[in-house]
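Q: Structure for this?
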Amino acid sequence: MLVQLGADAKLLAGGQSLIPLMKLRFANPAHLVDLNFISGTSYIKKDNGTIRFGAMARHAEIEASTLAGTIPILHDCAAGIADVQVRNRGTIGGSLAEADPSGDWATVLFTLAAEVRCLGPNGERSVSVTDFIKDAYTTDLAQDELVSEVEIKIPTEGSGGAYLAFKRSAPVYPTASAAVQLTMNGDACEDAAIALGCVSLTPIRVKDAESVIRGQPLTEKTIASAVDAARAAADPQTDMRGSADYKRTLAGALVKRAIEIAVRRARGERVNTGHIYA
Amino acid sequence: MPDSVDNISIQLKVNGKSYSRAVEPRKLLVELLREDLDLTGTHVGCDTSYCGACTVVMNGAAVKSCTMFAVQADGADILTVEGLENNGELHPIQKAFGDCYGLQCGYCTPGLMLSAWQLLSRNKQPNEKEMRKAIAGNTCRCTGYQNILKAIHMAAENMKGA
């Protein structure tokens, strides 16, 4: 249908961003193709060391899924996006395809081995989430493609992660967010992935912060170096959510807390966390 | 944009009653409810998907009816505030909002009651944290929320065994 309708057509997934954008006339598509009546596109299933999410899996379905909850950082994210009503409609595929710089899913998936399956007239292809997000509101999707699935590799034993997003109130986008996924071996951090959200045009994977803790014991000092690296990597804009300085400081504080929770979870502790309200 | 578009026929159930309508594709669900079906209990607050005044329950899940097109409700089962009472008897949620003074101007109240409805349909005895999370998408500018939380708690107590 996208091929027939041409460049003025847009796909409607959960609609929780597209419909408000249409009301503001920021989006004015001549045709909308509603994906909501296509059955079998909201599955969540385990498959060969991965969890596969149909693109239309709603945030609320992921929040309620025990399987998705086996990767705690996914539950942190799903359970805190906007509010109940938005989570009942909004989808993981729609969130990724929109690529809002303040969206939650991309930041979290940047810390996992996550592949985005893109379906077009010539078949399906997979692209890593870090290659999928190109720029603000810009993805690797061709005009005649859609996101069909998100596949996430289940982290190894001894891994733990946490996603913290700081919001002024439930329905709004976060002011800043941090996702941390660690693999621990005793007190040493064997592997680390750290990403920041809302502080640049796309989520930022903070390789400098990862390299200061990878292979090191996690001490106050090494964590502080990682936080410094995260603050340095943040590139926020001053806006109504806060000044650039404020957001940079906030991002650092969220990374510190997320590392602490990720470590506890890697040791098998159950910790409830997620979005924090001002 | 095309100059004109054909209306789309939909069928839906609202508060137990079936309706068939031909609607413009761009019409919002809340506009269908208020303007075509004359169910004006569902309010439009911010019209930007923030305030939750337009919350209705669709197929058991609370949704913002200003952030859905009416055609998307084809085949759906919708509950609005008008459907809460039963034969002139207020629903326990409505009664508790009154008894606890869980409203002042009343503008946000229908949306809040339907968010409470989803919560209590899935969790018979929610704790305060769960109640706060359930109504986080509903803005009230009068009450400060304390009496709303008391009302949801009272409704849960009164619905026990129901």
